[in-house]
Amino acid sequence: MTHGRGAQVEAAAHRHLIAAGLRPVATNASFRGGELDLVMLDGDTLVFVEVRYRASARFGGGAASIDAGKRRRLVHAAQAFLAGHRQFRDAACRFDVVEATGDPDAPVLHWLRDAFRADDA
Question: For the residues 71-96, what does the mean pLDDT come to?
């Protein structure tokens, strides 16, 4: 995904999740070996959100593209985030995926809560 298209789709996912009641914590948090697209709070749960864009869902959704290696990188990035943000050290955490398809200016979004577990990585 190109940077411009990626930013558009991530912004749409961000707005969608805020409209659903989540509160933003961080966007595009980069760490050695990984990046977290969105970090949000759902109540007291810290949510690490991976946004995946596909122009078409014809060959599977974006969640299908998150293989074991990508899950490991996301878990390591989440651990680095938690190490640097001690205020969340006791928070419950989960990994969500927002799949986006179609026009990047107005993507169709599908939010998968608890898409995978840290111990799945």
Answer: 95
